Amino acid sequence: MELGIYTFADVQPDKVAGQATNTHQRFKKSVGRNSTRRSSWLDVFAVGEHHRPDYAVSSPAVVLGAAAMITKNVKLSSAVTVLSSDDPIRVFESFATLDQLSDGRAEIMAGRGSFIESFPLLDMI
Question: Suppose 99 and one of 14, 52, 60, 106 were both cysteines; which one would form an S-S bond, judging by CB atoms 3.0 to 4.6 Å apart?
Answer without folding.
Answer: 106
